[in-house]
Amino acid sequence: MRWRLSSVARREYLELRQRRRMIEAVLVIERSYIQWKRRRYLNRLAIRLPSTSPTCREWPNVTLFLRDTNQILKKLYHVWRCHRYRIGFDQIGRNRMREKVTASLLFRNRKESYARSVAHPFQGDYVRLRQNSQWRKLVNETSDQYIVFADIVSKITRSSGRLVPVLFVVSTSSMMILDQRTLNIKYRVPAADIVRISLSPFLDDIAVFHVKSSSESSVLSPSFGNKWKGDLVLQTCHVIELVTKMFLVVQNAAGKAPEVNVHTDFEVSVGHQAVEFSFHCTGPTEVQPGHVRIVRRGYRLEVTL
């Protein structure tokens, strides 16, 4: 009887030991299999890495138990390629990228014409004013050596709404309207005196630059002396670029960013009078320059698209 009990106990002991060894073997095989899967995943990922472009959204799919690791590596890879993309820029490229980011913050989901400006690189000097000998002579007398923006734009007269083509220049310290032929300065407004920029949310190309009315912030005009003439209303096909560059120039000059107002109705100062600008969109078609109807009715200036 005692021998039988001993035999049963020994058999149970051997079965338990065998079961324990099987469990340990399963754990070893499982660990080895997981390590093999990880090594294979990393080796394949190293070969199949997507493009180094930050805009690329492709990424290899993996099995379920590697999903968390896959997401972490995806984020790390994206951060690395963004860093690599940024350090590849020189100072000029960084400034351009800063302008594009600023434009996105100012106009995305606010201005309908913003979308068409995304793919368009900001050139700044569209009339090659920097190479003009007359301009180089002129800047020796002023502090406007560095051109941020220069182009032929349409100045909207506040009295009748008529469009007048002018040469508009933005430097690091001011914005100016110049005579296209002689390059004589007609108006010059210090950048620190721009307090607000207003636009409509539609596809028009109109921007209003609100100027301080204090005596220290006068608009310089050879024909009108130092008389303050009010806010400046312009139309340009590069309105997103112009407002973005002006926003950064004012921020650097005044130490405070100007307010960017995107609304269908806002007030514009004409001398010491206030005129209400009102925008009306009659259809979904894209507005081309010259297709905007501007009518002055008393103290109201209506812009119909």
From TrEMBL:
Residues 111-305 form the TH1 domain. Pfam families: Myosin_TH1. One of its GO terms (molecular function) is cytoskeletal motor activity. InterPro entries: Myosin_TH1. GO terms for cellular component: myosin complex. Coiled coil: none annotated. This is Myosin-IB. It comes from Daphnia magna.
